[in-house]
């Protein structure tokens, strides 16, 4: 593990355990993991594991046996000692990491009894990793941190120490599941389900000691591709029997296997539409095969027409997920999870919350976010996404006192941003996104800025206050800074086609993918109203349907997502749309330059390699921000003919 960044669990984070007596009561594989963690800390910093009292820290299971919800734990300071009581091995492990988060506070002063339980049952990372390097997408589709952690040269990696270290990082922020391969299942990856399940089992063995269950992406056409059947029709008995046999083989190899992730009838992937069946038919086929073993199928709702005619303004990609899945609410099996992207398009820097998340009262759902920064700087730009995710999770689809998205979702899923780069995420500061996802998945109503405090405190446990202040200055507003110099007011996809990095205002405007801004000489934005547009706004329940329908009430940050308006339309800020575009492009560049300056001043306060990597990436971020500014401002000056009120240089 030499040369690999320790992430948010450097040895120094465990220093508070030093010179302390620790009693561990309980047994089981995860308790053994807890014992190893404590033993390593004691060996490094002093302290000892004791068999009986007195003790400074007690980590215990009731009567030594797990009961009930195995992830729940309680922390309290009682009689001069800190006590963690858990209902199972996972809970005890999470409780230990909570003590590490608290640091010296865990052992001094009052620590009122506090119960910790996750709000979501499954907190999963989807790795879009290919077993064999894909000629277009490479080793990791939308991966910006090197190759796969799991696969190398067409087979499972043999350097399992790194996978174990990764599992440790994930457990420390509350993630309990990992899907180890790409949702776009190619021919090689399809074989993981059957002939190559042993390789998946080897990976699962490294994740298991930290309470991580392994999931697998499968192709819906597996009975044809792997089984030699002539059909994958979900209502055919031969197909059902094939899946039952395949799933039995999986559980023989991996008894605690979590389940499948499926992308079907989307972007060319096979699915039940081929046979005139519904998505509920397809999902329930796999759910039925998994049910006897306690497994789940995560069925992605990312389904839309990606071969539409750009001249047809009635087809709206934003509508697609709702149109496909809302009518099926209540038809999915109990262990079928509808995995819904948090916005209706595709992880853009600003989107409304998907209306599908308010339309599934009788279906188990998962909210899917993207930690890998496909449209938010690709881990070459600092863009901490905690505030974005928090806005989504706190959104109330029914308005008023209705439940939030975070309260309604059973599961939270993120597309992983990790690779085999020494810094895990390529950009060292992108680790904050991974940690923040885990903590928000555990508690969706958590304050993301307090979560960021946790990450800073764990990653830099001995850092002076100046470093913490500098990191907040760089990270806190980075999402909004990125938004300022890229796509404005809710429009998206102003990126280079294919790789999606850098500006291309019209890059997708006339393509079949359905992502348009409709800028012309008179105005900009997409009319998605029920009155005159695509009708997308009406997919929301009241009051949101009414809020988004009207230009007067639509939030400015989403104005161009829902409305086509003149360049002279006045925003709540008092600025016109065109002046807002000019001003925010310039502001975004200035903020990126200031973040670069702040970072330069933090040299000497951390490992040189980490500081140097970020400094190099800031040079690219500032260059790219200037390119975004100049291309977008020039584009809209030429479209609108309206000059900048401040007379700044626009080309």
From TrEMBL:
GO terms for cellular component: extracellular region. Residues 425-648 form the Glycosyl hydrolase family 67 C-terminal domain. Residues 115-423 form the Glycosyl hydrolase family 67 catalytic domain. Pfam families: Glyco_hydro_67C, Glyco_hydro_67M. GO terms for molecular function: alpha-glucuronidase activity; xylan alpha-1,2-glucuronosidase activity. It comes from the Bacteria. GO terms for biological process: xylan catabolic process. InterPro entries: A-glucoronidase_C_sf, GH, Glyco_hydro_67_C, Glyco_hydro_67_cat. This is Alpha-glucuronidase. It comes from Streptomyces griseoruber.
């Amino acid at each position: 593990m030499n040369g690999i960044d320790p992430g948010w669990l450097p040895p120094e984070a465990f220093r508070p355990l030093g010179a302390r007596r620790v009693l561990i009561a309980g047994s089981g594989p995860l308790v053994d993991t807890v014992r190893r963690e404590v033993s390593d800390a004691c060996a490094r910093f002093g302290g000892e594991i004791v068999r009986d009292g007195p003790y400074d820290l007690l980590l215990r299971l009731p009567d030594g046996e797990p009961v009930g919800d195995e992830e729940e734990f309680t922390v309290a300071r009682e009689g001069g000692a800190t006590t963690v009581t858990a209902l199972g091995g996972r809970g005890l492990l999470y409780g230990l990491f909570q003590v590490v988060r608290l640091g010296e506070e865990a052992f001094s002063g009052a620590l009122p009894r506090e119960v910790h339980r996750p709000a979501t049952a499954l907190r999963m990372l989807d790795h879009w990793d290919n077993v064999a390097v894909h000629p277009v997408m490479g080793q990791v589709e939308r991966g910006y941190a090197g190759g796969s952690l799991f696969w190398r040269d067409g087979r499972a990696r043999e350097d399992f120490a790194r996978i174990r270290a990764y599992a440790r990082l994930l457990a420390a922020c509350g993630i309990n599941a990992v899907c180890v391969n790409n949702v776009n299942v190619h021919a090689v990856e399809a074989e993981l389900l059957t002939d190559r399940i042993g390789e998946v089992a080897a990976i699962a063995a490294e994740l298991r000691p930290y309470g991580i269950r392994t999931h697998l992406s499968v192709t819906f056409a597996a009975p044809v591709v792997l089984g030699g059947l002539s059909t994958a029709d979900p209502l055919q008995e031969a197909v059902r029997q094939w899946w039952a046999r395949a799933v039995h083989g999986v559980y023989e190899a991996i008894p605690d296997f979590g389940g499948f992730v499926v992308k079907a009838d989307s972007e060319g992937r096979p699915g039940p539409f081929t046979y005139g069946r519904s998505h509920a038919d397809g999902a329930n086929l796999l759910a039925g095969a998994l049910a006897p073993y306690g497994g789940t199928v995560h069925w992605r709702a990312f389904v839309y027409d990606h071969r539409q005619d750009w001249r047809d303004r009635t087809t709206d990609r934003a509508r697609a997920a709702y149109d496909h899945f809302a009518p099926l609410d209540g038809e999915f099996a109990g262990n079928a999870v509808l995995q819904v992207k948090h916005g209706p398009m595709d992880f853009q820097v600003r989107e409304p919350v998907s209306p599908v998340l308010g339309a599934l009262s009788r279906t188990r759902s998962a909210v899917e976010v993207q930690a890998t920064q496909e449209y938010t700087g690709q881990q070459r730009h600092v863009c901490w996404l905690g505030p974005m995710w928090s806005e989504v999770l706190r959104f109330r689809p029914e308005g008023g006192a209705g439940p939030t998205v975070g309260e309604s979702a059973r599961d939270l899923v993120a597309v992983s941003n990790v690779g085999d780069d020494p810094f895990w995420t390529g950009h060292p500061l992108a680790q904050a996104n991974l940690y923040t996802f885990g903590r928000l998945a555990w508690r969706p109503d958590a304050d993301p800025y307090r979560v960021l405090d946790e990450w800073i405190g764990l990653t830099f446990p001995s850092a002076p206050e100046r470093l913490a202040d500098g990191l907040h200055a760089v990270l806190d507003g980075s999402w909004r800074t990125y938004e300022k110099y890229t796509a404005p007011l809710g429009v998206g996809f102003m990126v280079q086609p294919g790789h999606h990095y850098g500006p291309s205002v019209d890059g997708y405007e006339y393509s079949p993918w359905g992502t348009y801004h409709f800028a012309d000489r008179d105005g900009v934005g997409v009319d998605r109203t029920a009155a005159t547009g695509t009708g997308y706004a009406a997919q929301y329940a009241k009051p949101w349907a009414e809020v988004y329908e009207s230009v007067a009430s639509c939030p400015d940050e989403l104005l161009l997502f829902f409305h086509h308006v003149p360049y002279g339309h006045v925003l709540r800020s008092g600025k016109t749309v065109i002046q807002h575009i000019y001003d925010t492009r310039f502001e975004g560049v200035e903020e990126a330059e200031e973040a670069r300056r702040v970072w330069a001043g933090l040299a000497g306060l951390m490992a040189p390699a980490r500081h140097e990597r970020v400094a190099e990436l800031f040079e690219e971020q500032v260059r790219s921000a200037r390119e975004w500014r100049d291309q977008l401002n020039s584009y809209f000056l030429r479209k609108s003919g309206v000059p900048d009120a401040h007379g700044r240089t626009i080309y």
